[in-house]
Amino acid sequence: MAQSEGDAAQIMTVEEIVVTGTHIRGVTAPVGSDLTVVDSEALMQFPATSAVESLNRLPGFAAIGYNAAMKTAVGPGAQAGNASRGSDINLRGIGPRATLVLFDGARRPPTGTTGKGTDSSMLPMLALERVEVVADGGSAIYGSDAVAGVVNFVPRKTFDGIQTQVRYGFADDYDTQFGGIVGGREWNGGGFVLSAEINRQSNLSGLDRSFFRSDLTARGGGDYRSTDCGNIVVDGVSYAIPAGGVTPATANQLVPNTVNRCEITRQADILPEQEVKSIYGSFQQEIGDRLTVNVRGLWSEREWTTMETEAGSQHNHSTVVVPETNAFFVRPPGTTGPVQVGFNFGPDYGLIESNGAVEYKSIGAGLEFQISDTWRASLKHDYSEIDDRWATIGLFNPALTAALASSDPAVAFNVFGPPGSNGYAKASELFRNYFDPTAMYEMSQTRVGVDGRLFDLPGGAVRLALGGEYYELETVQGNTIGDVRTLPERPFSVRNRFKRDVTSGFVEVFVPIVGNANAITGVSKLDFSAAVRYDDYSDFGSTSNPKFGVNWMPIDSLLVRASYGTSFIAPALGDTVSPSLGGALTYASRVDPLSPTGQSVGAIWTDNNPNLDPEEADTYSIGLEYMPDWMPGLTLKSTYFSIDYDGQVGNINANTALQNASAAAFVTRNPTAAQLDAAAATGIRIVGTRPTDVAFLIDARLHNLGGSRMRGIDGSVGYEWETGSASVWSAEVSGTYLLKYESAVLPDDPYVSRLDEIYNPLRLNLRAMLGWSNGPLFAEGVLNHTGGYKNTLVTPVQEVASYTTVDLRVGADLSRLFDAFDFAKNTTLSLEVVDLFDKEPPFVDINGGVDLTAINTLGRRVSLTLGVRL
Question: 515 by DSSP, 3-state: which?
Fold first, then answer.
């Protein structure tokens, strides 16, 4: 279960541990902010496939953005695809980039072929001691990205004994297997730990879930089936090809304004097949009375395979232009002009297989030196690298063009015949184009700091921490494209190489104004903290961010806390480098309300932007924690939070810029030749031919655009009690209720409420838990509730129903239940059922019929877990 800051103190040595959210040693939580600790046992209690999935069960987290079911990132802050099927942490649902994810207090390199995501799904679970979550701005402590908060995966430093765990789980047409072992030894002044685990999940095909489909008309929705299913299109008019195909002799069977549609989406996988392997080790030793040395290393790899109908720019269906030389050419009677055919290659070739691997390596070393009884110095260095690669087979356009143009029936490809008439052998000649994008990231970071006691006040010791950090991040991005038959002869093509270094300095002070020695009526305790951090980036500039926190206890059982700070997110590595790979000056026509014809021809400038500023945020929170003396075991917590997030990086929609008055600052009417030449001089590609009269120049480069405003309340009520039958009970209800979420796309746009809209934060998330134990037996039930929301992607707006599921876990400590298991300190066998009542997800009128960011597509999932501690 999640633990509060009070619980956290019980599992930490207060004088030795620095918790997430502060550099001050010896405090149990950052002053003014709520610290939530999720221990390793809680992470593993239910059959999550990763620590990310386990955390997403908590109300403050959201799967919006990057998750394994989404190959395209969605929601606030989504700027890139998710081709390698990673999963990100997303506090508050405000965007994955707004949450800083740490491993052992150190930053992790970005992942993905564009470097705009952080894949946390491959972090090992058995190697973790706990996860610390501070859902509050943290840039004054950690720098970039900590707008919504910080999530720190804290690995074990030492371990005494051996612990193993194996698990098998299954749902309809889906299964998982997990196996892991962690072992180590502790001795006076040191110890070590080693762990290894493997986690496998099968794929989940759309065909295995009846609710997942494109034709939603039976449920009152739209028909999103593809039209690439045997349709001839001439001059914009569609002619459906009969089921048995069409030939020149039967061309009179073609009827104008008819369309064939086919279910393509549901043939693909909803979830990929995945395997995550990891090895972790750590060694710690005191040397003498003053020096402590720690070294740790992690290797992890996530391999995945999925069957798709669309993989990036590769498709198994397409609209093709067919020349009259084609041996099977058919033209609808009475038509002229080019003939296009929407064709599904699936019956001839099948689905596209995409696969990839993400390899993560990290090594860290630290020294802690006890300068005096009250001061300590630390030096820590971390190096990590990520190799992210994926590959897919797609249409080989030169072969397709030749096959469509051939007049030889033995060679020509027949797009006019019935599905499957060409056969796999001929279709496979067209699907041999290999697309293999790869990105490699290296990060090296060093931190030095000192902390200790300055002087004593009546309320306690004033403590100070100060230091500096330096890190370098470098990426190489590229790909291999070509005919698979000659692929070994084609070298890797480096397309982007970026480097960034950041120099930072920080200072933090903790002041206990009132403590036990000078408590007065109404002020049992009063603590204050202040921190400031300066970050200087090599590629875009510098920024300073402060944070202030206050803890006030009017009585011993009530804590009132408050915090205020500023945070920022640096532009993604490469966003400030011009020209970019996709940069272009494109001459094209667009809808133009100022044109007498309704359209005009102009230039569209797409590129990165060297003048980007960081995204900025102001955050504050006010909370209370109450543990009444009159009812031991009862804990009440509540936090009001506010986030004002400005200057979010993005580009304007070039298709609608001329129609949007708010985009006027990005549109130059009747640009001069010098203005067009200046854009072209940046080195970007020129697409199309410059006309004599250019009506507009749209600046669609990356810019600091609009922002968002969020207000909400986190709350929980927990109670633990015992009954006369030696039973121990625990109950907790926790949740997040958003009061407001508004966003503006462009700087001058008004803020519009996006609360409870699809792919945006939802107003209500609740979790209720009831646990019981009696001797060796235990049981736990969990109710998860997500409020309903609006599907604004359709007209009229659809009201999507709320979603409530129930999970159950029962088990026994076999070493206490049976004497035969006395050799083990703790041998547990448990049965876990996620979505006990197999709740069908609410219907959403989008392609697929469900919102993959908001529901459990697996349905009821049953798992059996055996754990042994020696």
Answer: coil
Cβ atoms of 22 and 30 closer than 8 Å: yes
Residues 528, 24: Cα–Cα separation, whole Å: 12
3-state helix, strand, coil in the chain (%, to 5): 10, 50, 40
* Closest residue by Cα to residue 831 from 801, 858, 802, 808: 808
Find, among 142, 16, 146, 20, the residue nearest to 94 by Cα.
146
Q: CA 119 to CA 52: how far, in whole Å?
A: 9
Q: Which residue has the higher pLDDT, 21 or 95?
A: 21
Non-local CB neighbours of 262 within 8 Å, separated by 6+ positions: 225, 226, 228, 229, 344
Q: Are 549 and 562 in contact (CB under 8 A)?
A: yes
Q: Under 8 Å CB-to-CB from 165, ≥6 apart: which residues?
A: 44, 126, 178, 179, 180, 181, 865, 866, 867, 868
CA 493, CA 355: separation in Å to the nearest integer? 19
Residue 681's contacts (CB-CB under 8 Å, 6 or more residues apart) are none
- For residue 519 the two structure tokens come to 């408590």
Domain boundaries, given as residue ranges, for the chain: 2-205+272-308+356-393+435-575+615-648+706-869, 584-610+652-700
Tokens of 212: 């997942």
Question: Which token pair is 583?
Answer: 């940069």
List the alpha helices (DSSP H) in 396-510: 397-405, 423-428
Q: Which two tokens stand for residue 140?
A: 């004054």
Pairing of strands 525-537, 541-555: antiparallel
Using one digit for the tens of pLDDT, what is the confidence trace for 533-587? 999 999 888 999 999 999 999 999 999 999 999 999 999 888 888 877 678 899 9
Mean pLDDT of the chain: 90
Count CB-CB contacts under 10 A for residue 441: 23
DSSP letters along 104-173, please?
TTEE---BSTTS-B---TTS-STTEEEEEEE-S--HHHH-TT-SSEEEEEEE-S---EEEEEEEEEEETT
Dist. CA 578–CA 610, nearest whole Å: 7
Q: Are 815 and 825 in contact (CB under 8 A)?
A: yes
- Look at residue 74 in the predicted model and tell me its pLDDT: 66
Strand partners, 354: 306, 392
**Residue 715 burial (CB < 10 Å; 0-12/13-18/19+)?**
middle
User: Rounded to an integer, what distance in angstroms lies between the CA atom of residue 463 and that of residue 374?
Assistant: 9
Q: Is 2-205+272-308+356-393+435-575+615-648+706-869 a domain of CATH 3.90.1210.10?
A: no
Q: Is 352 exposed, middle or buried (0-12, 13-18, 19+ CB in 10 A)?
A: buried
The residues pairing with 757 across neighbouring beta strands, listed in sequence order, are: 790
* Residue whose tokens read 């986030």: 643
Give the integer Cα–Cα distance in Å for 462 and 88.
Answer: 38
The residues near 531 (Cβ < 8 Å, ≥ 6 apart) are 22, 23, 140, 141, 506, 507, 508, 509, 546, 547, 548, 565
> Is the preceding peptide bond at 579 cis, omega within 30 degrees of 0?
yes
- Residue whose tokens read 């045997």: 230
Tokens encoding 850: 């469900």
CA–CA dist 479, 74 (Å, integer): 25
Question: Is this prediction's pTM over 0.70?
Answer: yes
Instruction: Please compute the mean of the pLDDT values over residues 451-476 and round it to a whole number.
Output: 95
Q: No. of H helices and E strands in the chain? A: 9, 46
- CA 21, CA 43: separation in Å to the nearest integer? 21
Cβ contacts of 648 within 8 Å, gap of 6 or more: 77, 615, 704, 705, 706, 707, 708
H or E element at residue 181: strand 174-187
Tokens representing residue 40 in the block: 């390793």
- Give residue-wise pLDDT tens across range 319-349: 899 999 999 999 999 998 889 999 999 999 9
